[in-house]
Amino acid sequence: MNLWLALIDLLRASLFAVAHVTGGSMGAAILVVSTIIRVALLPLTLRTARRAREHQAVLRALEPELTRIRQRYAADRSRVFKETTALYEKHGIGFLPRGALPSMLAQAPIFGALYQAIAAGARKVGGFLWIRDLGTPDLAIAIIAAVFAAAAAKVDSSSAASSRAWLVGAAITLLFAWRLTAGVGLYWIASNAVGLGQAFVLRRDASP
Q1: pLDDT, tens digit (0-9, with 9 covering 90-100), for 182-208
Q2: What is the residue-wise DSSP string for 126-193?
Q3: Nearest-angstrom CA–CA distance, 33 and 191
Q4: CA angle 197, 169, 49 (to 5 degrees)
Q5: Which of 43, 112, 159, 161 is most buried, taking the most CB atoms under 10 A from its CB?
Q6: Tell me, what DSSP letter sits at residue 96?
Q7: φ and ψ of 10, to 5 deg
Q8: Residue 102, Cβ neighbours under 10 Å: how many?
């Protein structure tokens, strides 16, 4: 059997099982299952985020040297790449934080399958709280998801490339969540809420 389809079926079955326990509420099931999966992945996502922060710190320290390389070999892009690579190797870093790619590859199938399971499971299953139909978009859900996304980015200062980065992230979340189903929006709320908790942990790590 296709492992991808098997994973989607497993997650869909988990949603219906939790919905049965929560009185038939698919909305509650989406929040519970999404939160459990996001929390289970916290050791991996925290380790990746910490390495990314360390990587950014090294890059900031190397910025004067990188600027000199770009200026000195401005007419030779291949030389810029070669010198930059040599500088990175000298300081023991790569173009991506250590372990970033394996982490993304490990998480992508899980979240992709969960997204599909939720999108399929939320069809014609009724409402949740004020939502009449989880299979249709809901502006309030999109706003809540965007607020959590903005709060997580604001708390974790390392995630903001500028003072307005958190606002841009919130706007993107709002746009996509508003265009997708309320069921998927609930998933984003749960994921971003755990992400906010992760941001507080990272902020505590950075405190002197």
Answers
A1: 888 888 888 888 888 888 887 777 665
A2: --BTTBS-TTS--HHHHHHHHHHHHHHHHH-GGG-SSTTHHHHHHHHHHHHHHHS-HHHHHHHHHHHH
A3: 10
A4: 45
A5: 159
A6: S
A7: -65, -45
A8: 11
Q: Which residues contact 31 (CB under 8 A, 6 or more apart)?
A: 186, 189, 190
Q: How far lies 166's CA from each of 24, 148, 193, in Å?
A: 36, 10, 15
- The torsion angles phi and psi of 118, rounded to 5 degrees, stand at -70, -45
- C-alpha 155/C-alpha 150 separation (Å) is 9
Strand partners, 128: 131
Residue found under tokens 């998927």: 184
Q: Model confidence over 64-83: pLDDT tens digits?
A: 888 888 888 888 788 888 88
Length of the chain: 208
CA distance 104 to 52: 13
In sequence order, the 6+-apart residues with CB closer than 8 A to the CB of 48 are 97, 99, 100, 103
pLDDT tens-digit series, residues 120-158: 666 656 677 787 777 777 888 888 888 888 877 777 665
